[in-house]
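User: I'm putting together a teaching handout on how sequence relates to shape, and I'd like one worked example. Could you take GCK domain-containing protein from Astrephomene gubernaculifera, show the sequence you're using, and then write out its predicted structure as tokens right after it?

Assistant: Happy to. First the sequence, then the structure tokens directly below it.
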Amino acid sequence: MEPSGEDVPLTHPAEDVGTNGDMEDDEENEEECGWCKWMKAGGCKDEFQVWLDCVDGLRAAGRDDVESCAEVMGPLWACMERHKDYYAPQLSSLADKKRE
């Protein structure tokens, strides 16, 4: 069964994305994480930014329950499905997590 966007939180296994997609939650560090750049480059930039803003808002409030952003994950997931040629590695990773 393929996971729906609402079932699996979107994360990159190798990176901890901080506020504004930065690797560290540091206002002086303006460099965007490589995974965020990759996600934005594939045709779902707007949908990803909505999800990232949700996650950043939670983290800024001291929370880490990204599952609270499930409502914005649906449109992002649908967009990623429409752009499977680009997002295949992320979709595959999420499907593997769902099976675990």
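A couple of points you could highlight for students: The chain is about 55% helix and 0% strand. Residues 19-99 form one domain.
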